[in-house]
Inverse folding.
């Protein structure tokens, strides 16, 4: 059984609206352009594909995309928008690509974006996810992970939470346990009728160096790391990273 939270029907139906800032062109377009270039003419597999925020624009660019997603309601929303996009309902640490898509070992690109790998709340599952990604890649194929860098320097003694997003319709903050690397994201969303709703999601944060070790255990080699999809250099002050690991050809 996976440790991931499960997005139910109500959450899935509201996901696109409540996450509108993630669909903004300045956020989405650089990610789609980066991934499309890496995929080239080969097929791509998105882990935790959700409602298709990234996958659908990639398909519209001509990339053959398949997906793996734990939540059936999220897949239902995706299929309402793009019924021809093949998706396996299952755990991204262990599930296999859809039978109607390319077979494992044939993908030129596997990707997991917007911190979704942190939905797996144990280190063992996260290691298994890297291995599952590597199993799906063709020799020379690449795994891309978009992930935040834990902001624990922002936790002075006695502080229990730090904000990660403050917008007109959404405010979110994280609480974290430094001993277990587990945390909870708390979301407060304001709706057009003036009501405010609360939601929470649980995660395990991963350091960039820990990601590199997980990739190494999966037989992958670090190719590049930037702060964002536009290629801003990654530094000790970066709060996010887009990392690319390559499966050797030999």
């Amino acid at each position: 059984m996976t440790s991931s939270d499960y997005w139910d029907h109500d959450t899935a139906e509201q996901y696109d609206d409540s996450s509108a800032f993630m669909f903004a062109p300045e956020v989405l377009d650089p990610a789609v352009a980066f991934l499309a270039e890496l995929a080239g003419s080969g097929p791509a597999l998105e882990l935790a594909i959700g409602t298709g925020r990234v996958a659908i624009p990639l398909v519209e660019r001509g990339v053959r995309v398949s997906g793996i997603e734990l939540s059936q309601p999220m897949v239902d929303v995706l299929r309402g928008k793009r019924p021809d996009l093949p998706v396996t309902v299952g755990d991204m640490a262990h599930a296999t690509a859809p039978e109607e898509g390319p077979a494992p070992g044939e993908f030129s690109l596997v990707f997991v974006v917007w911190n979704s790998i942190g939905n797996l709340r144990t280190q063992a599952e996260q290691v298994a996810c890297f291995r599952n990604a590597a199993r799906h890649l063709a020799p020379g194929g690449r795994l891309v992970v978009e992930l935040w860098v834990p902001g624990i320097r922002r936790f002075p003694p006695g502080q229990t939470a730090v904000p990660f997003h403050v917008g007109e319709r959404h405010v979110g903050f994280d609480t974290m346990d430094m001993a277990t690397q587990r945390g909870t994201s708390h979301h407060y969303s304001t709706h057009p009728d003036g009501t405010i709703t609360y939601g929470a999601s649980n995660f395990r944060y991963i350091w960039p160096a820990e990601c590199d070790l997980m990739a190494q255990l999966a037989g992958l080699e670090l190719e590049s790391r930037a702060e964002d999809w536009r290629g801003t250099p990654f530094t000790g002050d970066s709060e996010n990273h887009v990392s690319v690991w390559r499966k050797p050809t030999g």
Observations:
- The mean pLDDT is 93.
- The chain has six helices and eleven strands.
